[in-house]
Amino acid sequence: MKKVFITVMALSLSMSVLTSCKDASEKAKDASEEATEALEDAGESLEDAAKDAGDAIKDAGEEVQELGEKALDSIKKAGEDAMDKTKEAAKKAIDSVKI
């Protein structure tokens, strides 16, 4: 009877350990799936962020180009104005020398 009791106890313990291992395996599998999903989501977020950064850089580049063109136009206009004033001053100087 004692041997039967020990055998039953050993079987019960074995079943308990087996059930615990099976539960741990399932939990590990679930955790692995959740981690995979989280990594996929993070990858998508990083991809979106990279696209947004690229768009922002493109927009900034276009704005810088526009500002550069405006600056060149301003410099050209200032140069033309300076030339006009220089021509007028030279004309006045020539006219004053002729008199």
Automatic annotation (TrEMBL):
Composition bias type Acidic residues, residue spans: 33-47
Gene3D superfamilies recorded: Apolipoprotein
Domain of life (superkingdom): Bacteria
Region (Disordered): 27-49
Keyword Transcription in annotation: no
Keyword terms: Signal
Signal peptide: 1-19
Name of this protein: YtxH domain-containing protein
Gene source species: Flagellimonas olearia
